[in-house]
Design a protein that fits this description.
single chain, mainly alpha, Rna Polymerase Sigma Factor, Chain: A, Arc Repressor Mutant, subunit A, elongated
Protein backbone atom coordinates (compact mmCIF):
# COMPACT_ATOMS: atom_id res chain seq x y z
CA UNK A 1 0.00 0.00 0.00
CA UNK A 2 1.49 3.39 -0.99
CA UNK A 3 2.68 5.67 1.80
CA UNK A 4 -0.02 8.31 1.22
CA UNK A 5 -2.77 5.69 1.43
CA UNK A 6 -1.26 4.47 4.72
CA UNK A 7 -1.36 8.04 6.02
CA UNK A 8 -4.94 8.34 4.87
CA UNK A 9 -5.86 5.11 6.65
CA UNK A 10 -4.36 6.55 9.84
CA UNK A 11 -6.39 9.74 9.32
CA UNK A 12 -9.56 7.66 8.95
CA UNK A 13 -8.65 6.07 12.28
CA UNK A 14 -8.53 9.56 13.84
CA UNK A 15 -4.76 10.00 13.98
CA UNK A 16 -4.30 13.79 14.19
CA UNK A 17 -0.53 13.55 13.66
CA UNK A 18 -1.07 11.81 10.31
CA UNK A 19 -3.57 14.50 9.35
CA UNK A 20 -1.10 17.26 10.28
CA UNK A 21 1.61 15.53 8.22
CA UNK A 22 -0.69 15.41 5.20
CA UNK A 23 -1.72 19.03 5.76
CA UNK A 24 1.89 20.26 6.01
CA UNK A 25 2.91 18.27 2.93
CA UNK A 26 0.11 19.46 0.67
CA UNK A 27 -1.07 22.85 1.96
CA UNK A 28 1.33 25.12 0.02
CA UNK A 29 1.28 23.18 -3.28
CA UNK A 30 -2.53 22.98 -3.17
CA UNK A 31 -2.76 26.73 -2.47
CA UNK A 32 -0.59 27.45 -5.51
CA UNK A 33 -2.71 25.09 -7.61
CA UNK A 34 -6.00 26.66 -6.46
CA UNK A 35 -4.60 30.14 -7.10
CA UNK A 36 -4.17 29.22 -10.77
CA UNK A 37 -7.97 28.93 -11.00
CA UNK A 38 -9.17 31.71 -8.69
CA UNK A 39 -6.33 34.21 -9.15
CA UNK A 40 -6.31 35.25 -5.50
CA UNK A 41 -4.03 33.85 -2.79
CA UNK A 42 -6.47 34.44 0.10
CA UNK A 43 -9.32 32.74 -1.75
CA UNK A 44 -7.05 29.85 -2.72
CA UNK A 45 -6.03 29.39 0.92
CA UNK A 46 -9.69 29.45 1.97
CA UNK A 47 -10.51 26.74 -0.58
CA UNK A 48 -7.62 24.55 0.60
CA UNK A 49 -8.49 25.08 4.28
CA UNK A 50 -12.09 24.18 3.53
CA UNK A 51 -10.98 20.98 1.80
CA UNK A 52 -8.87 19.92 4.78
CA UNK A 53 -11.69 20.82 7.18
CA UNK A 54 -14.11 18.60 5.25
CA UNK A 55 -11.45 15.89 4.90
CA UNK A 56 -11.04 15.72 8.69
CA UNK A 57 -14.72 16.09 9.46
CA UNK A 58 -15.88 13.50 6.93
CA UNK A 59 -12.86 11.20 7.25
CA UNK A 60 -15.03 8.20 8.19
CA UNK A 61 -17.09 8.50 4.99
CA UNK A 62 -14.34 9.26 2.49
CA UNK A 63 -12.93 6.56 0.28
CA UNK A 64 -9.82 6.97 -1.79
CA UNK A 65 -9.03 4.13 -4.16
CA UNK A 66 -6.32 5.67 -6.32
CA UNK A 67 -3.93 8.14 -4.76
CA UNK A 68 -4.27 10.76 -2.07
CA UNK A 69 -2.38 13.18 -4.31
CA UNK A 70 -4.87 12.70 -7.16
CA UNK A 71 -7.82 12.99 -4.79
CA UNK A 72 -6.59 16.23 -3.22
CA UNK A 73 -5.72 17.95 -6.51
CA UNK A 74 -8.98 16.84 -8.15
CA UNK A 75 -10.94 18.09 -5.13
CA UNK A 76 -9.16 21.46 -5.19
CA UNK A 77 -9.79 21.84 -8.90
CA UNK A 78 -13.51 21.10 -8.42
CA UNK A 79 -13.83 23.47 -5.45
CA UNK A 80 -11.94 26.22 -7.26
CA UNK A 81 -14.10 25.89 -10.37
CA UNK A 82 -17.25 25.94 -8.22
CA UNK A 83 -15.96 29.11 -6.58
CA UNK A 84 -15.28 30.74 -9.96
CA UNK A 85 -18.72 29.76 -11.26
CA UNK A 86 -20.40 31.11 -8.14
CA UNK A 87 -18.39 34.34 -8.35
CA UNK A 88 -19.43 34.82 -11.98
CA UNK A 89 -23.10 34.31 -11.10
CA UNK A 90 -22.78 36.70 -8.16
CA UNK A 91 -20.99 39.32 -10.30
CA UNK A 92 -23.65 39.08 -13.00
CA UNK A 93 -26.36 39.45 -10.39
CA UNK A 94 -24.73 42.53 -8.85
CA UNK A 95 -24.13 44.02 -12.25
CA UNK A 96 -27.77 43.50 -13.22
CA UNK A 97 -29.17 44.80 -9.94
CA UNK A 98 -26.85 47.80 -9.53
CA UNK A 99 -28.17 50.79 -11.40
CA UNK A 100 -30.11 48.82 -14.02
CA UNK A 101 -27.95 50.56 -16.61
CA UNK A 102 -27.34 47.28 -18.41
CA UNK A 103 -31.04 46.46 -18.60
CA UNK A 104 -31.78 49.90 -20.09
CA UNK A 105 -29.72 49.04 -23.15
CA UNK A 106 -32.00 46.09 -23.97
CA UNK A 107 -34.73 46.40 -26.54
CA UNK A 108 -38.31 46.05 -25.27
CA UNK A 109 -38.40 42.59 -26.88
CA UNK A 110 -35.22 41.52 -25.06
CA UNK A 111 -36.55 42.85 -21.75
CA UNK A 112 -39.76 40.89 -22.27
CA UNK A 113 -37.83 37.72 -23.09
CA UNK A 114 -35.61 38.23 -20.04
CA UNK A 115 -38.65 38.64 -17.77
CA UNK A 116 -40.29 35.57 -19.31
CA UNK A 117 -37.14 33.54 -18.76
CA UNK A 118 -36.87 34.81 -15.19
CA UNK A 119 -40.49 33.78 -14.57
CA UNK A 120 -39.90 30.35 -16.10
CA UNK A 121 -36.86 29.83 -13.88
CA UNK A 122 -38.82 30.80 -10.78
CA UNK A 123 -41.72 28.57 -11.85
CA UNK A 124 -39.34 25.65 -12.40
CA UNK A 125 -37.69 26.26 -9.02
CA UNK A 126 -41.07 26.23 -7.26
CA UNK A 127 -41.84 22.84 -8.82
CA UNK A 128 -38.68 21.28 -7.38
CA UNK A 129 -39.00 19.14 -4.26
CA UNK A 130 -38.81 21.37 -1.19
CA UNK A 131 -35.35 20.25 -0.05
CA UNK A 132 -33.85 20.55 -3.54
CA UNK A 133 -35.33 24.01 -3.96
CA UNK A 134 -34.05 25.13 -0.57
CA UNK A 135 -30.54 23.77 -1.21
CA UNK A 136 -30.41 25.38 -4.65
CA UNK A 137 -31.56 28.77 -3.36
CA UNK A 138 -29.11 28.65 -0.43
CA UNK A 139 -26.25 27.99 -2.85
CA UNK A 140 -27.13 30.11 -5.87
CA UNK A 141 -29.10 32.97 -4.34
CA UNK A 142 -27.53 33.26 -0.89
CA UNK A 143 -24.02 32.26 -2.00
CA UNK A 144 -23.56 29.58 0.68
CA UNK A 145 -20.96 26.87 0.25
CA UNK A 146 -21.90 23.22 0.01
CA UNK A 147 -20.47 22.41 3.43
CA UNK A 148 -22.35 25.33 5.04
CA UNK A 149 -25.61 24.08 3.55
CA UNK A 150 -24.86 20.52 4.61
CA UNK A 151 -24.22 21.60 8.21
CA UNK A 152 -27.28 23.83 8.35
CA UNK A 153 -29.64 21.19 6.93
CA UNK A 154 -27.95 18.21 8.64
CA UNK A 155 -27.23 16.37 5.39
CA UNK A 156 -24.02 15.23 3.75
CA UNK A 157 -22.05 17.40 1.32
CA UNK A 158 -22.65 14.69 -1.30
CA UNK A 159 -26.42 15.13 -0.82
CA UNK A 160 -26.05 18.87 -1.38
CA UNK A 161 -23.98 18.25 -4.52
CA UNK A 162 -26.54 15.76 -5.84
CA UNK A 163 -29.50 18.07 -5.18
CA UNK A 164 -27.77 21.02 -6.89
CA UNK A 165 -26.92 18.83 -9.89
CA UNK A 166 -30.53 17.65 -10.18
CA UNK A 167 -31.85 21.22 -9.89
CA UNK A 168 -29.43 22.45 -12.56
CA UNK A 169 -30.44 19.56 -14.83
CA UNK A 170 -34.12 20.46 -14.47
CA UNK A 171 -33.42 24.13 -15.14
CA UNK A 172 -31.27 23.24 -18.13
CA UNK A 173 -34.01 20.95 -19.52
CA UNK A 174 -36.60 23.70 -19.06
CA UNK A 175 -34.35 26.28 -20.70
CA UNK A 176 -33.66 23.94 -23.62
CA UNK A 177 -37.37 23.31 -24.15
CA UNK A 178 -38.08 27.07 -24.10
CA UNK A 179 -35.18 27.72 -26.47
CA UNK A 180 -36.26 24.91 -28.82
CA UNK A 181 -39.85 26.16 -28.95
CA UNK A 182 -38.70 29.74 -29.67
CA UNK A 183 -36.33 28.49 -32.37
CA UNK A 184 -39.13 26.42 -33.91
CA UNK A 185 -41.45 29.45 -33.85
CA UNK A 186 -38.81 31.58 -35.59
CA UNK A 187 -38.22 28.88 -38.17
CA UNK A 188 -41.96 28.71 -38.89
CA UNK A 189 -42.19 32.52 -39.15
CA UNK A 190 -39.21 32.65 -41.53
CA UNK A 191 -40.61 29.91 -43.77
CA UNK A 192 -44.01 31.69 -43.97
CA UNK A 193 -42.39 35.00 -44.90
Amino acid sequence: MPVNLLIFKKIKDGNIEAFETLFRSYYEPLCRYACQFVGNKDTAEEIVQDLFYVLWKERDNLQIFTSVNGYLYRSIKNKALQYVEKAMVRDNYYRMSAGNSIIETYTPQEELEYKELEQQIEKTLRRLPERRQKIFRMNRMEGKKYNEIAQELHVSVKTVEAEISKALRELRDKYNSIYDSKRQKLKTQNSNA
